[in-house]
Amino acid sequence: MSQAILERLKERYEDGVVETATERGDDCAVLKREILVDVCRFLKDDADFAMNLFVDVTAVDWLDRRTPRFDVVFQLKSITKRHRVTLKVRVDDGDDAWVPSVTGVWRGADWFERELWDMFGVRVDGHPNLRRILMWDGFEGHPLRKDYPVAGRQPLVPLRKSEVHVFENNPVDPFVVGLGVVREKSDGDA
Amino acid sequence: MATPETARDPLDVDDLPMEPMVLKMGPSHPTMHGVIELTLRLDGETVRAADVEIGYLHRGFEKMGEVSTWNQVFAYADRLNYNSPMLNELGYAMAVEKLMGVDVPERAQFLRVIASEISRICDHLTCVGAGAMELGAFTAFLYAVKAREFLYELLEKISGHRLTVNYMRVGGVWLDMPDGWDGAVRQALTDAAGVMREFHKLVTRHRIFFDRMEGVGIISQEDALAWGFTGPCLRSTGIDYDIRKAHPYSCYDRFDFDIPVGDKGDNYDRYLIRLEEIEQSRRIIEQAFDRMPGGPVVSSDPRVALPEKGPVYNTIESMMNHFKLVYDGIRVPPGAVYSFSEAANGELGFYIVADGTGKPYRVRVRGPVFAIMQALPQMLIGGMIADIVPTFDGINMIAGELDR
Question: Touching check for A165 and chain B: CB below 8 Å?
Fold first, then answer.
């Protein structure tokens, strides 16, 4: 079944599919970055494929071994059809290290894409809230890159002061009144 | 005596400050199952907005994996979901075996399934027990922990450890079961079931427990799928997706068991599903013992298995093989695979990349809770602050596999 996915993708996107491979039962299509979101939407909406579960996205850093440097690897799955597929996008270091966000297709890609940015420094274009997720704000570098030292240490974070918290999914325009107390702005406030 | 005009009448509620309040819950809080931080915007007692901040227990599993040998990663895998270490080990072992094309002997498969299901029961017991405790039923928690203790003793007998078991190896398991272990398992399961019947009587239809769980933390089927839910949380919405049935691995296709599903997607459904899965795991273990085959417990493939002691002492080839396996580790041929299994909380995936050396080039783990935790704000918003506790427990967040 998953073989059929690869065939169908090659037929539909022609040059957009760089190569396809089946390794130990895993079907994988290497895509050009431009068509990634379109392919995802197609795989999700097409009744034959119905990839309704976003499983994972991660990257592999091929520092000094391959160019382009990163493989960004997506795992998709259909719970109704009980099949799955792997998609890969190859991106290079520096300005080229970005992939488009698929959060518009599966909301669940949100944290996984934040982790991709946090751990590998691969930017996710169009992500609604691309912040670090496992590391803290102010962390320098991206720890799962091969050139980040295993025993790398960074200075301790200073004790946090009272701060303004802007909520992600219910944004208001708050300002701090006291420690941790937030008041919404009203017309009377300057 | 005249009252000054500025004095506040304590009974005049219109005069009370009405600003929404921001509350930081965690990172260290008695009902948090690990260190995470919730930032809540409260309107009275109603949650209006919530953010989740994770990463406090990040130990760099994936980075450490890159500097360990393939077998050393098992010790780290134990510490992902520390309530059910066997399930993590099984997931990782299957990934390496898939990449190498190693066949695992029958008896090892059965032992793996039995150990995994014992771990699954431990995990569910912890979840329902801690959930009851956080709602005030401390006694019930002790019942669940008592039942869990019977099972930890079994894991100790087979692996030497209660929690971080380090039992599985690429190609099989470390040791065969000790004499009389099957009897001990059956006895412990019966004892645990007896304790859980009491737990069930104490908790399941308890008025307070029921009212606080039922209809709380609801998530719809569409939302659950969109967020990437798997495991009991997905099944509580009515989707009968269990990897043990959908993509049978190891020897799960030979056992007869059912997948419980819910219909509302609330905390009470998730609680009942976990209780029922404990029963189903018990069925699997009993069937496995009934059909337990003989034979070796680790593959004889010289690429992964240490040779027998006799040849090691008497032949140069075996000694060299032993030496290479210990010093360089298993050599996995270059390639990449994604392998997945049903852990206690859902799909546990390992994406491993090998470059032909004795160490993984990349070990990626997809913890089930990572996807589920994204939806926590959605499940909390609109509810009361007290509902956070049962909803958070129903997800069964384990910081070890969330932050890795």
Answer: yes
